[in-house]
User: Which sequence fits this backbone?
């Protein structure tokens, strides 16, 4: 008989299909926020009026903005934004942008609560993985300044009580995990995503596919998460193809946003994922590969590696992707290639001499150890990396 545990989060609500600015104003009023600080995408702030629309809608409650959060949320940028938000006397943080803005914003709330003013101050708050793959979580007070997130990509991090923040000295993306850093609400506005570059939208959509696939194949798979994972795959595979064909289709964009949300059902309730995510974390933090591209490259190869032990579950994945007569790895390759995304490590700028270090660093990620087919050494990771090269 299956045994497990479903862990729910401290998120109040998800608002979908509504215009972002008015939804933010309504949420700020509901939360009685008086000093709303914006952490936003630099491109959105500089090249569109979308951020100005939000600032103007907030009126006297608008307290300031920060538009510097580079890819993979480096610690330096997180602390700098927190210092600016503290100076503005922020009582509510609104994050408007992609996954780096989302994760960076979670880190900002930790900094605000614990008066962290330089990068060294973040070190005691990160999650540590031991030599057996077990996570050790530091205990600390939850942030009192909460966040609202308006995502413009499909990574799904807005639904997770985890932030990936990069230590730029060690070139490692490190995890900060605490129930209290999850946003209090998420606003899914498809119109807010039309500025997102096509490659970023589609590649992060495959990141969401990766969430669903590795949830369905997880060591912790159960009836609750299985249904969500397969539905997410149906929504995403169709929605991404529709947006590729017609970028202005807001219904298709909302379909993708909903699929990305549902894809996170397992992650946010405690489901362990596998090697595609673990390797992806290292490719991002160590080699600066964009978040979505890591899944585009790695997921089919990880599925091929795992097929020896879970081909029966992989068949359900292929069917959900609309390809019941091929392997899951081939179905994923067809979807990803059809969207014009990269498919090899060479395609994303990785040199062969980087592979051993990447494999070694993967042993620092707990999800390496929860891959369905057991991985306990860098040499096993190298088998996957060589296939993907």
Assistant:
């Amino acid at each position: 008989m299956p045994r497990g545990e479903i862990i729910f989060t401290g998120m109040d609500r998800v608002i979908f299909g509504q215009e972002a600015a008015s939804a933010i104003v309504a949420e700020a009023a509901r939360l009685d926020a008086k000093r709303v600080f914006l952490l936003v995408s630099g491109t959105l702030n500089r090249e569109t009026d979308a951020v100005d629309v939000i600032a103007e809608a907030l009126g006297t409650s608008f307290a300031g903005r920060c538009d510097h959060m580079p890819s993979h949320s480096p610690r330096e940028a997180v602390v700098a934004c927190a210092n600016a938000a503290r100076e503005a006397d922020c009582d509510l943080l609104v994050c408007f942008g992609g996954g780096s803005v989302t994760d960076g914003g979670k880190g900002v709330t930790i900094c605000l609560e614990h008066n962290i003013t330089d990068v060294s101050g973040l070190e005691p708050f990160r999650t540590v993985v031991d030599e057996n793959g077990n996570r050790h979580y530091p205990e600390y007070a939850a942030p009192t300044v909460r966040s609202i997130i308006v995502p413009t990509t499909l990574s799904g991090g807005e639904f997770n009580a985890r932030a990936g923040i990069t230590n730029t000295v060690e070139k490692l993306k490190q995890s900060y995990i605490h129930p209290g850093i999850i946003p209090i609400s998420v606003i899914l506005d498809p119109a807010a995503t039309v500025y997102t570059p096509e490659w970023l939208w589609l590649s992060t959509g495959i990141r969401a596919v990766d969430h669903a696939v590795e949830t369905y194949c997880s060591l912790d798979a159960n009836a609750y998460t299985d249904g969500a994972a397969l539905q997410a795959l149906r929504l995403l595979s169709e929605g991404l193809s529709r947006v590729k064909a017609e970028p202005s289709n807001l219904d298709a964009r909302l379909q993708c946003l909903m699929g990305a949300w549902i894809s996170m059902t397992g992650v946010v309730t405690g489901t362990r994922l596998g090697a595609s995510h673990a390797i992806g974390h290292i490719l991002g933090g160590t080699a600066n590969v964009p978040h979505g591209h890591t899944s585009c490259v790695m997921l089919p190869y990880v599925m091929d590696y795992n097929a020896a032990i879970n081909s029966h579950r992989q068949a359900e994945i292929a069917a959900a992707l609309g390809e019941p007569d091929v392997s899951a790895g081939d179905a994923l390759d067809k979807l990803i290639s059809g969207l014009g995304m990269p498919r090899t490590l060479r395609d994303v700028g990785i040199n062969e001499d980087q592979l051993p270090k990447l494999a070694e660093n993967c042993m620092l990620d707990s999800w390496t150890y929860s891959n369905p087919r057991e991985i306990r050494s860098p040499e096993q990771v190298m088998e996957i990396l060589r296939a993907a090269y």
Q: What stands out?
A: The domain at 198-388 is CATH 1.20.1090.10 (Dehydroquinate synthase-like, alpha domain).
